[in-house]
């Protein structure tokens, strides 16, 4: 995931020699000086010409009030033409010494705009004439001038000293705030969904002073994890999964069990003072164009309440509603049927035959727990699956940015996030393919055993592996933590093909194979997040927003045209006042900053002209 792909650059020997006389820092400084001068002069043509023909500028809110990648000269020039004067960038510079690999020099950078302080990343490479050209530029808004978070030298005092007008204790102020919120005081932002995404965003909004409320239907923060099957653990390592402000302790497990994550989220919610209503279900929401506010009906602990936020965030994860397929005979099946999201774990299934429809992450986890508890289990693989071993992913895919060694080498979480964000989605697959070539060679015997057992493998449509599958479609993969050995040796029985129908006591596949079953688990994934919008706001709003997630890569389950960024995630949508937030822990941490800053700017009444608002090409 983190390998640096070096471009093939052919330059005249004399020009290359001239470039080699400069240090990486001198090359970066020279490019930034020329670029900054062109921008300050309003010279869009000159600034654009400083990029290579295959150059990319990825902007996260700093210039565009959007998440937008400009690809090539025409798109960079168009963005600058519309946004340069208003943004007024200045004070470009590096934040630490530049480095170089072969001909590519790179550095973390900082700059200011008319309203904010920004950070980013720059890569340059010699052009045909030997002059350095911009290859990838990342600019990200980090804070709004005059609206900084109260930290460091600006942290709050906490104690009440002297004859302050408000003599209430901290606990009294918190109690009063909780009593008023949603009644006498309306939240500016209502976040629906109190899992990792909603909690991370709630913490950011709290620190930025934006009146907000996170609501969730579960009894306690973290129940989204506690109530899943008991063997569930994170498949991503701890260094990848920190939440904002409070990283996991240094003795935290590499792969945290679900209940430990649940407890951490509950603790985090309390210590970060996230305004949070548990046991609260939203029943409907409607938007008033004239007032620019939402009317949201909720039921909190049996009490019906009406809220009027200005901004509404759906933070229901990266997935939408559970996708439960419809098969003939489901109404006559005499046993138990449920989606993987409702799977209770292996307890209670001793002596029964379980058929799991699906062969991705949840299916493998569920099957592994079942057979390890002596349950007769069959996995039904309907299409090929990408498999990567956990240790291979950690060492080859994540190690350079998210590992104990990376931390020891000075790679902070923030620098890792900026480095990863600096790779434009258009070329990210090129960075991934060499990693998975290494993994396939390293784990050849492992893959051979799986294929010998009849398991259908893939590495993505273009062999770019796990992360691109995740970004493009959010499905079709499994990070192996032991289940694959059980498939290879037959402990987990494997069946292949589509489901034709169910009988009273079996699942019948399209080729006529009959699988005896007392329990059927549908590990069949989830729909688009706009399904939640349809439930709460109606199909018209859901269609106005369109499909959520995916890049438009024209690969399996990710239809084109090319979007350049994740559809509708963490940025303005075609429905005013409606936002989507979620993803894995890494994305919830990193992108919550940019969403929070967009919401803060609107709360403070700043002008936020959105450049490149995403068009709708697919409804679901």
From TrEMBL:
Superkingdom field: Bacteria
Q: Does the keyword Transcription apply?
A: no
State if Oxidoreductase is listed as a keyword.
Answer: yes
Q: Which SUPFAM superfamilies match?
A: FAD/NAD(P)-binding domain, NTF2-like
| Pfam families listed in its UniProt record | Pyr_redox_3
Q: Which UniProt keywords apply?
A: Oxidoreductase
**What Gene3D superfamilies does the annotation carry?**
3.10.450.50, FAD/NAD(P)-binding domain
Know the name of this protein? NAD(P)/FAD-dependent oxidoreductase
Q: Which organism is it from?
A: Gordonia caeni
